[in-house]
Amino acid sequence: MLALLLAAALAPAAAPSPSTTRDTQTVVVRVYDNARVSRSEWREAEKIANEILRPVGVRLTWKACGVMVAGRDPCVDPPEPRELVVRWLGGESDTMSGILGTANVPGILASVFPERVRTIAIRNRKPTGLILGAVMAHEAVHLLLGLRGHTAQGLMRATWSDSDIRLGWIWRIGRTADERAAITAGLHDTLAAAPIELGIRTLSEIEK
Ligand SMILES: [Zn+2]
């Protein structure tokens, strides 16, 4: 399990850069909101996550699980191959203190703690949705790349400092073009590979 931590450390000096050109791959994320995140924060987080991931050619489409659309839960069907699942967990807990999000790697399920994100957002005078979007982008990369996703700086740094947030580093997926190219190649290789089959079939279904 990978955990995204917040630490009190100094941030690096820095440099953004040009985007890597690849066809954009869309990845569906099923979001189970047990933290009562507002609609406006949700929209901002989704927008920011996609702005962060645009340079590596990945777009996330979020489904609000449990929110009925035309009388139907959009997550009632089993996940399609490559769909990711993120739980937004409510409340502050002593367990995993300071952790903003976790992901099983590689896998399909991540957990994010929006109340902790809110606390950090307030402390750094940033909108909650802005930081929530970065946490979501970080965990989505882990679900697809595993440990390979970590970089020394930027969005995929294992531990974020307040300075990383104030200086805007967490909204940049790589510090250098080489880092972005490596992440892009890894993500697209993963998405092109044979998907993991999800769900449990009965014996009679398998025999058909
Ligand atoms: Zn991480």
Key structural traits:
208 residues; alpha/beta; Collagenase (Catalytic Domain); 7-stranded mixed beta sheet; 6 helices
Structural write-up:
Residues 8-20 have low confidence and may be disordered. The protein is 33% helix and 19% strand. With 208 residues, it is α/β, with parallel strands linked by helices. It has one domain (2-11, 20-206): Collagenase (Catalytic Domain) (3-Layer(aba) Sandwich), CATH 3.40.390. Helix 1 packs across helix 3 and helix 2 (114-123) crosses helix 3. It has helices at residues 39-53, 114-123, 128-145, 162-166, 177-192, 203-207; strands at 2-7, 25-33, 58-64, 84-88, 99-103, 109-112, 159-161. A seven-stranded mixed beta sheet has the order 3-2-4-6-5-1-7. It contains six helices and seven strands; from the N terminus they run ββαββββααβααα. The protein is globular, with a radius of gyration of 17 Å. Residues 2, 4, 138, 142, 150, 158 line the site of zinc ion. Zinc ion binds next to strand 1 and helix 3.
Give a quick summary of the entry.
This protein is α/β, with parallel strands linked by helices and 208 residues long. It has 6 helices and 7 strands; from the N terminus they run E-E-H-E-E-E-E-H-H-E-H-H-H.
Q: Architecture, CATH level 2?
A: 3-Layer(aba) Sandwich
Strand order of the largest sheet: 3-2-4-6-5-1-7
CATH class equals Alpha Beta
| Residues in β-strands, percent | 15-25%
Query: What overall geometry do the principal axes of the alpha carbons give?
Result: globular
**Overall residue-averaged pLDDT value:** 84
The distinct bound ligands, ions and cofactors come out as: zinc ion
Q: What is the string of SSEs from the N terminus onward?
A: EEHEEEEHHEHHH
Give the tally of structural domains.
Answer: 1
Using the CA coordinates, give the radius of gyration: 17 Å
Q: In which range does the helix fraction lie?
A: 25-40%
